[in-house]
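Researcher: I've been going back and forth with a colleague about how Protein DETOXIFICATION might be arranged in three dimensions. Neither of us has a model we trust, so I'd like an independent prediction. The organism is Actinidia chinensis var. chinensis, in case that matters for your notes. Sequence below.
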Amino acid sequence: MENDEHPLLSTMADDHNTIFGYEDDARPSTKIQGFLREFFIESKKLWYMAGAAIFTSVCQYSLGAITQIFAGNIGTSQLAAISIENNIVAGFACGILVGMGSGLETLCGIAFGANQLEMLGIYLQRSWIILNTTALMLMFVYVFATPILKLVGQTDEISEDAGTFALWMIPQLFAYAMNYPLAKFLQAQNKFMVLGVISAMVLALHAFFSWLLIAKLGWGMLGAAVVLNSSWWLIVLAQLLYILHGACGRAWTGFSWMAFQNLWGFLKLSVASGVMLALEVWYADSLTLLAGYLKNAEISVDASTICANILGLTTMVGFGFNAATSVRISNELGAIHPREAKISTVVVGITSLLTGLTLALILIITGKAYPSLFSNDTDVQELVYELTPLLGLCIVVYNLQLSLAGVAIGAGWQAYVAYVNFGCYYLFGIPLALLLGFKFNMGIQGIWWGVLSGSFLEGFVLLWIIYRTNWNYEASMAGDRLKQWGGETEESGV
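Model: Here is an independent structure prediction for Protein DETOXIFICATION. You can compare it with whatever you and your colleague have in mind.
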């Protein structure tokens, strides 16, 4: 990330050792005033985008959470089956597709900052081609979900029910492949509010039809599948109608054969992005998977799933900061504004940390009340309450970590961070979780402690990488990244 020999650096002031551009010999009062002024300005920009992105993330995450709430009132077995499908099968596919979609986030953000708007639609279509092809391959995971779950040690009853539910959820898989590129395409143009409005409308419909089909008409898991599939495809269709109606100007000029050109460079970035975020998503999902190996697996899975749902809901704040930060960083680097990119990084780090602490405090205060919203089983409720302090720590760490990952996406560091994720999560976090949970008989709490430790280590490494970054160099390389990953065209001059 650091390279002081790049030719453009001789004409750009290196702000690595200054505070938001104020020299080290400036008076302390000047530094503080400058910091507060810059912090306030950047916070307004960040919250304008992050607020809508958080709202969108919460709405979309709530689709699955609402379904699981209704399923929990049907029975423990149905809740476990739907939870396993959502967190393991769909989580596996979602991790790959969300990650691969973040490659589009980098390119569209840089192109938008560089005012190369006509390339955004081309990038969108390339991402559709790659993600839908990937979804075709991932479909086999859904088809063979039952034997896969049995192979990894889930009980026969849960595996059979989850496998059946996975078959019914194949349409959702392709909705993911269409939705994530659409969302990144719109976010790069700062159209966060549009995504929020669409998600809110769909969520309201989803809640009503979940109650109607699952609770009122008694369709059970079939009703859950019908409502989830329909809701995700409704989001896709609404976004498509908005774009095709002409609301994006030069960013969308219609379907083009150029989408099939230069796919290799785009694919490499998409794969690197997919690995980076997939490792992130799968790691969180490991909490539910590992809980399935404990004694009283049903209670452990249900309790861990409830906590994972709460963690997932609160880290939607982190995903909102992630989306907003990646857009801010990529836009500023594309416009060759390294100082602004650095400011944005500092502001999102501080803001996400304070936000995570606030959410954790609220959760701990209400720790006795919320478990009953998800399950009628008193044993499950008690175990959830015992996990609440750990859950609060996870909320703080995950929100900061996701915000820092947004910096990495905006700067195009996906391949590098993928190695960091693998080392911190799978060479350290998972082995520690297994050791504490099974060897030292700490049960579900040991598993959560191990996973949290891996996340803490990953956050520390990301902080060190960002601290060592030379933003002048990163800005000077933005155009080269468009050529390397997005492909050159005579029309755009990319």
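Researcher: What would you highlight for our discussion?
Model: I'd start with this: Residues 2-20, 489-494 have pLDDT under 50 and may be disordered. After that, consider the following. Residues 198 and 235 are 7 Å apart (CA to CA).
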